[in-house]
From TrEMBL:
InterPro entries: Glyco_trans_2-like, Glycosyltransf_2, Nucleotide-diphossugar_trans, TPR-like_helical_dom_sf, TPR_rpt
SUPFAM superfamilies: Nucleotide-diphospho-sugar transferases, TPR-like
Domain Glycosyltransferase 2-like residue range list: 5-107
Protein name in the entry: Glycosyltransferase
Keywords: Glycosyltransferase, Transferase
Highest rank taxon of the organism: Bacteria
EC number from the UniProt entry: 2.4.-.-
GO MF, one example: glycosyltransferase activity
Top enzyme category: transferase
Pfam families (alphabetical): Glycos_transf_2 (PF00535)
Amino acid sequence: MNITAIVPVYNCQDYIEKAIQSLLKQTFPIKEIIIVDDGSNDGTLEIIEKLHSQNSSLKLVRQSTNLGVSSARNKGISEASNEWILFLDADDFVEDTIIERYTGVLDDELGKDPNYVLVYPAYNQVDSNGDSLQSVVTGIQVLSHEILGYEFVRNYVISPSGVLVKKEAIMKFNGFDTTISINEDWDLWLKLAEIGGFIYVDDPLVNIRRHPSNTTSNISLSSQAEINILKKYQLFEIKEAIYKRELSVFANSCDYVSILFRLEEWEKGFLILSSINESKNITVLFLKGIYYIHVLKLREAEQCFEQILAQDPLHGSSINNIGVIHVLNNRVNMGIKYLRKALELFPGYVDAHFNLEQLVKKVEKRIENFKVTKRELRPNLLKYFK
């Protein structure tokens, strides 16, 4: 299997050498590694040129001005001469067996289903020094016709780093959309999921850095960008994809409602919820709680989240949301207790961290000043601080 690795780079002098070296040290060598410098003006280019002079597999492509990561990746794609493309962001690094693992998996799986277009691993999260945050984010393996529905509900391919994509497939969409600056990768994964399946390798083969600069403000922007991407699709397209998953009608309905709520289709979603008989189910209670907060029926919302915690005392998003409700009802000390508990149970929980910071700032106790978690938490959260 022939692979081209693409590394877009912009002002990453502290990390770029480790990223490139992780590709050079593969147990199965990569014959072509394309580094696209996107107009760096620090010491990045000097480091790349030194490595380039020492390694024939490296190819340096320069963009004189900073055009953005999507443009840089697309430039690399256009220069790639191989059938499969491995992406790696300049501040991340891969394990030295990733190509060996991917080659073995593809040899096995393509014989069963030739329509696979993407391979991705579990991700190990590290801090800016490269030290592990002791948090691995895992994915899922589903049938090819199911992946679009799963990706609508939640992006399991959380970073382009370590993602292997078939060049022929990615070229059908002209690569990454350069008009999107946040969640541009998820936008492409959704497109790819429309034409083929994803292979998940359940091993943390990629180390992704979480920097202090990846703050709550970026999370807010990401949430809006996510909504904008979902709005590219008609509701019937989203619903059809979700109900293609080989899950129960109940499970598919709950996930569809969660998307309706993200798209501000509150009444449509609540109508579906009201038709579901499993009123004691945690997911149903959670979605109803979110709806009640939206319509400012805080008492009803609190009752939903309390019922959840009676069944699952470690349900993080419910703990955060009850904390917010207490604050809005001027029970600040109780609210702080819940928010601190959420952070204790789930270190790096951005919404709870943000809410506590808002209380320190003594902001007005209005719903728009706090973050209600609208989805149940991943088993392992994405971390932006220790």
